Amino acid sequence: MHPHTRSTPRRGRRRIVGALSVALLCTAGVTALPAAARTPGPDPSDTPRTARTTGDAPRLPGGLAKTPPMGFNNWNSTHCRAEFNEEMVQGIADLFVAKGLKDAGYRYVNLDDCWALPARDAHGKLVPDPQRFPHGIKAVADYVHAKGLKFGIYTSAGTKTCSSVGFPGALGHESSDAQQFADWGVDYLKYDNCNNQGVDARQRYRTMRDALQATGRPIVYSICEWGENKPWEWASDVGHLWRTTGDIGDNWPSMLAILKQNLPLAPHAGPGHWNDPDMLEVGNGGMTDIEYRSHFSLWSMMSAPLLIGSDLRKASPATFEILDNKDVIALDQDALGKQATVHTSEAGRWTVVKQLANGDRAVALFNETDQPQRITTTATDIGLPRAAGYRLRDLWQHRDYHTAGTVSATVPAHGTTLYRVSADRHWASYPPSVETGTDRTPLVEAGAATVLRSTIGNLGRTPAKDVTVTLQGPQGWRIRATSAATARALPGGGRLTTTWRITAPPGTAPGARPLTLTAGYRAPGGQRITTTLPGTVQVVVPPPAGTAYAAELPWLTSANGWGSVEKNTSVGERAAGDGGPITIGGTRFDRGLGVHAPSEVSFYTGGRCTAFTAQVGIDDEVGDKGSAAFEVWADGERVAASATRTGADPATTLTAGLTGAETVRLVVTDGGDGVDYDHADWADARFSC
């Protein structure tokens, strides 16, 4: 749990550590640990080289976590709010059984912070909060166990947990707390990193490992030190999984940044020792269902623990559909335990490949960008032997096709197409794989027309017959094909391209609307196959002539590392409108955008603007902390960028030429050092149109 201003601290990120922690805790009347407890641990150079640099380091005994743990943790949906209680935990256990999640592999029902009282009892024991857990923790664990599930709990490797309330941590109490957990029937421990008093991380986490093993109870041990000390290099004989990043947020930039941090760590993961890029946000509402499918797909490809972070009592059918996708879960739980690796990555188009125990390959075609992208590879490129044909299973459509060797899809913005590919001598028994795609997300001004192109391509060896394609938009819109939308047959490698004219009725309000492309064809065996590609059309408003301030224009999209993008105030990290005056280097600005890295805000300029300018920097509210870099992108090309700015820097002017650009994106990155205190301001941001 990392420090942030004015906001409730978040799980799994440091707030108070080292010397600062001692000073603050002593001020609050908390006694610092004796010097013996602060003795530094072993020097990193003492660790055997293989343990530090390969995935073949020593393992924990006991055979736990042979596949990544699957279950639930309440933090992302409840934090420390009152709804985190005994009734909720029991309700989640009930739903695991009733909704089939237990059958899908979800086993652990885990508590996070705030389950205890702020003080230990007279015997130094932890005391469950009687308001939240009136029957105690053991009773809740017994309830969970009676469902055939397992139970998890949380504490921190420090004097206090990460909550601002200051619940007791386990530092100096490891043996007592571990035994108390074992007596309650705990099966899983998440061990955080807050208020650690500067004690060596390896020493702290090994001490709890030894305490857990001394209880004799098998307990999965989750190290949550945020990747600060590179636990993937030393913790394979300490814990069963380790966090590799800071906290995830329920937004696209956060998920994407964590993905990019965790992907390179594939060599360090395997049965009993997993990289943990943090819990799932699926269903919490900050991303679209397409983005949540990407989140779930990519976490499964990375052999990540799948810990549901949404309140299943309120979950939508779409959320359950994602979480219960057994085809995707099978990748995460594959016995080989190989984390996927990046095969290619270029211009936001990713091909990520996972080797499976039976010799198959899983392939994620991931589109990072905000436009549809065609992403392609081949069966032999991803490691399969040469064959006459291949079975191609679409893991979100739950359908089998065949391909002559090309593995390809036009992937929606922020989407992931997920295939399981195998060399199959019965390939001809499956229908040919037909790729369906569009060239972009159309932008439409009300009352005007725009053009969109769709393409249908046959990737198989056998023909696709009686091909039809339709495009459906909102009721009342005019959508018509201006070129052929049918074909008698598409041979292997054949393509059908159709041009569409889309007109929104006059007066249509700005915003995104659904747009669905549907392709139908007949396979050689006679069966009729229909595939759909969900998408959107965006109704836009042209900018006014003259000077147009960014805070006064509607944006196409916005995504923020923490909290909402703010107009004319700094970011507040949580609800909209909770920021303060925009101030950089002592200068206050009346207009602008307040964001938190990583962040993107996009605008429609429609070719009518010539330039953009802003005063950029880190808001004074974080002092001299924080760092970020500012970028301006026009139609997918970066046209301006600042050097990294810190909280100690004054505002600097950033200008960009925009002539002819249809869209503009304002991007803030974290400066390469994480997102602590990155309250970034686009002060006095304006377009010349």
From TrEMBL:
Annotated protein name in UniProt: Alpha-galactosidase
Q: Which organism is it from?
A: Streptomyces celluloflavus
Q: Which SMART domains match?
A: NPCBM
**Catalyses which reaction(s):** Hydrolysis of terminal, non-reducing alpha-D-galactose residues in alpha-D-galactosides, including galactose oligosaccharides, galactomannans and galactolipids
Q: Which InterPro entries does UniProt cross-reference here?
A: A-galactase_NEW3, Aldolase_TIM, Galactose-bd-like_sf, GH, Glyco_hyd_98_carb-bd, Glyco_hydro_27, Glyco_hydro_27/36_CS, Glyco_hydro_b
Provide the Glycosyl hydrolase family 98 putative carbohydrate-binding module domain boundaries.
544-689
- Native organism taxonomy: Bacteria, Bacillati, Actinomycetota, Actinomycetes, Kitasatosporales
* Gene3D superfamilies according to UniProt: Aldolase class I, Golgi alpha-mannosidase II, NPCBM/NEW2 domain
EC class of the enzyme, as a word? hydrolase
Q: Which UniProt keywords apply?
A: Disulfide bond, Glycosidase, Hydrolase, Signal
Tell me the segments the record calls region Disordered: 35-72
The family classification in the record reads:
Belongs to the glycosyl hydrolase 27 family.
What EC number(s) is this enzyme filed under?
A: 3.2.1.22
User: Where does the UniProt annotation place the signal sequence?
Assistant: 1-37
Q: Which Pfam families match?
A: Melibiase_2, Melibiase_C, NPCBM, NPCBM_assoc
